[in-house]
Amino acid sequence: MPHTVPGPAFIRAYRPSQIGMHWLIVGLVAMQFLTGQGMAAWFEAPQTRMETTAGTAWVHGIIGTSILIAMLYRLGLRRAFGAPPPPPNEPSIIQKVSRANHYLFYIFLIGMPIAGLTAILTGSEVVAEIHAWAALILLALIAAHILGALWHLVKRDGVVSRMTSRDY
């Protein structure tokens, strides 16, 4: 009997590589919010860049570039291995909101590092401002994602365990 790889409809959990990338990106994004104010100060005070916040700015830029690389890799993993389907009893509107939130994560976590690097390399205050506003939207996406995870924990429907299980 030939060995077949089940399609995305049969996936019960994310693969360990997908889980690892998820939590790596969570940590990197958290560090970005810790270094973001230093980056803003660096951008707003060009005459004192080297004296005050250059270290924080470099860390922020390196982490942002790391997020970009990690997200592109994660996107490749998603295309290669898919994702578990939503729970069968999940209301359609919840599925749509969840899907939109995940798509927006990919857009923002790929677009923000590009915008940040563009702002630094060109000195564009407009792009820097867009990047800063995008960070606020990203915070809202993160809050929605956490609330969704908590909701699934309360429901005990197994959704959260898909990001922690090795049962793929």
Automatic annotation (TrEMBL):
Domain Cytochrome b561 bacterial/Ni-hydrogenase: 14-165
Bilayer disposition of the protein: Multi-pass membrane protein
Alphabetized InterPro entries for the sequence: Cyt_b561_bac/Ni-Hgenase, Cytochrome_b561_oxidase, Di-haem_cyt_TM
GO molecular function, one term: metal ion binding
Required co-factors: heme b
Subcellular location: Cell membrane
Keyword S-adenosyl-L-methionine found: no
SUPFAM superfamilies per record: Transmembrane di-heme cytochromes (SSF81342)
Predominant subcellular localization, coarse grouping: membrane
Residue ranges of the TM segments: 21-43, 55-73, 103-124, 130-154
GO biological processes: respiratory electron transport chain
Keywords: Cell membrane, Electron transport, Heme, Iron, Membrane, Metal-binding, Transmembrane, Transmembrane helix, Transport
Gene Ontology cellular component list: plasma membrane
Name the UniProt record assigns to this protein: Cytochrome b562
UniProt source species: Oceaniovalibus guishaninsula JLT2003
